[in-house]
């Protein structure tokens, strides 16, 4: 006889203790619209900076200037629109009564909803800015970024998101976000082109585009205080229990705006690097701005052929200079390296041959158009010397096109043939004869009113 033995019943699992609820701010930060607003800021700022990379890579001032203007033209309108869209969420989802029944005060509820968008658009801009700085780093050779400018821009973008949020809650209109974005862009354009002091409190803060000036250290901080205090004024006036507290940031905003307007142009100073040069040991010496010392080997290499042809010639300038002023009597001006994106891209000359031709052109009566128009012989001699010192494919293509265009004009065709004969004559000279001839020529080569008898002919 068998006996069935029953196994003891298994006790049911104990229920799990409820986890600690997430803070609403964390939920808003990680879900919903806020992360998408940060992605939009990253893609818009990063996309425009990428499209214009040739205009800023290789120059810290140009990189900072483009980042600042991109923040004002794109990130600020986007932040206004994103804040307005988030601010109108309660009305679209009919959550106003539910919010009113919560124990948190109106200011705390406002911040829980508004801060995530502000933080995300700031983060998107900051990430695009860091990426731009890293992209420029391999091609720069002097200077440094301006972290306070980036901080001021990020705070301004975040402040605009808060302003947009207040507008979205206040204005019951679905088109408020795009209208705010358009208004921010129009304000940027109007303030940037204004001649009055209002441009210093506009979205771009009167920031001059270029590599020759930099802001004083406190300008980005005061500009950020202006925008941030203005946003805080709007937030407190809208959501604080005691709205009179909005007067405190309002006073700070007005004080910052007064400082910006009163200081004006004095908030920018010349970049000290552009006032100095670095030079090689050639003759004439080649000097480039200390803002781009890495370009000196590239420029010297581009001018090496010209320097070789001038070897042993007397009466030459002592140097090619690259300073923001007119050259002295014993100097010749170097062809411009700026703005970045034209003759120089990512630390390289775009057309070294054309650059050498421009340098040769600056040696021979560059600023004497009246003399050349009145004396064809001197003009022909100057042209032949320039062509011999620095042959250029582009210039020869232009001459070939002129020869074709002048076939029906006997006078112009004769002038073209005389130009070619002058160059042939210079090329046919022996090195010693040509060196002596060039020495005589450069004795008057930069004189706009020379004695015609002292200018050698070809």
Q: How would you summarize this macromolecular structure in one to three sentences?
A:
With about 450 residues, the protein is mainly alpha-helical.
Assess the beta-strand content as a share of residues: 5-15%
What is the end-to-end distance?
136 Å
Helix tally?
Answer: 18
> How large, in whole angstroms, is the Cα Rg?
33 Å
Can you summarize the main beta sheet?
A: 4 strands, mixed
- Name the average pLDDT: 86
Order of helices and strands: HHHHHHHHEHHEEEHHEEEEHHHHHH
Quantity of strands, as a count = 8
What class would the helix/strand composition place it in? Answer: mainly alpha
Ranges with pLDDT <50 over ≥5 residues? Answer: none
Helix-residue proportion: 55-70%
Strand order of the largest sheet: 3-4-5-6
Shape: elongated
